[in-house]
Amino acid sequence: MICYTLSETTLAECLRKIEQNREYIDICELRMDFLTPDEQKSAYLFPSMVDIPVILTLRRVSDGGKCALSEKDRRALLLSALDGDFAYVDIEEDVKKNDVEHYARSKGIKIIRSLHDFDSMPEKIYSRIQRLSERADVAKIAVTPHSISDVLTLFRASEELEGVNKIIIGMGDWGVCTRILYKKLGSMLTFASDTATAPGQISAKDLKLVYHADRIDENTAVYGIIGNPVMHSLSPLIHNPGFEAIHYNAVYLPFLVDNVRSFFALAEYLKMRGFSVTIPFKVDVLSYLGNITREVKQIGSCNTVIRVPNMWKGINTDYYGFLAPIEKDIASGRIKNALVIGAGGASQAIVWGLRNRGVNIVILNRTLSHAEKLATINRCQFDTLDNARKYEGKVDLVVQTTSVGLYPDFDINPIDGFEFTGREIVYDIIYKPKMTRLLKEAEKKGCKLHFGSEMLIEQGKLQFEAFTGYHYPDGIKIEF
Q1: Is 81 helix (H, G, I), strand (E, B) or coil?
Q2: For the segment 458-477, what is each residue's pLDDT rounded down to a tens digit?
Q3: In this structure, are residues 35 and 17 in contact, taking their beta carbons and an 8 Å threshold?
Q4: 213-265 pLDDT, tens per residue?
Q5: Alpha-carbon distance 468 to 320, whole Å?
Q6: Which residue is catalytic, options 166, 282, 313, 450?
Q7: 336: annotated active-site residue
């Protein structure tokens, strides 16, 4: 089930939110602690106003809520609300059995016992969930993972606690995958909200329409994108509509990663079929691949990993995706000389692709040794970023391949002060924001612009083909 958390101050506003999201949700949670005191008096009426089950929650400040009442007054407020026909009431782990629980059970209202940790992952997490389940109809934990290993621990709860009725949530960016793949954790529901009441919450619309989270089952093939950062990724908006169009039971989602080795352990546990790779892991993944294509070997980086019998295989679609929008300008001779900013994994594919089209290149990088290494492999020139102005008016193409300017640091230009003549083609592979500061400055001079979204879509379509064996479906309008 997808559960919509209501954090409005009035019941009327809560009803409007239900109406706006009704097609995406199966159940809702009334956060009574967000209601005004006058509205709290009428909370018992809310279940009769909606056509879906309602969870009643009156969360304390110490558990991330807004209720600052004494425990005695909080219990009294909960008791008054339980006159309504709620399906569940949420009671925190440390609250002893009391009149609230007794009254709820007498009315057939099920008990959720919950544990919240906004700082970390508690020790002995499985035994704590087990103990919660022994005191309730549903055991709920919302904890804060800080690594991909922590995330793997949460997913393993499905087998460690088989048969336990539970809700397991990883909060924050690390836990986003647990919210989407909640059924893979054995959770009975996942929480959604338009205004996040807990770190990492996703809108109900996205959970339903982008990720089809409520339709994921044991046969759903899992794909994703790994990176750090990665939550800005728009790749799910390419792959998930494609899967839907070819009627493929699959989902594609972002995974924040700190350690490639640990991610491969998670990928094995989830039986993932493949994943995309973005900054900064395009080189790191190579050590874990049993097979790589000729392009990956020559480029030295990988942006796509697919499962083949008994191993993982690496391919690279970056170079093709990058070249596709400028292919005509290269073929016509419009682009002969290029300035490439950055010497990371994305730059490796771009430099290789341009050199294979006969373009002369100067690589600029803050760490000169990295630029030199890439330039030596591809037989081109290199220099430091500090010397960018030496190349003003001498190149036809300027390519920005680093994460500088990526949201939220969108006001940074890696070659600040570089004067464009207006004849250059300027290409920034960042796609969020679409107009980086570099592109804005180039636009002022009349330069022709190319955007990261162009590269993203082209390379994504090739990834889709590698993942599924099908060409990307015609007729899908990809909008970011």
Answers
A1: helix
A2: 999 999 999 999 999 998 98
A3: no
A4: 999 999 999 999 999 999 989 999 999 999 999 999 999 999 999 999 999 99
A5: 18
A6: 282
A7: no
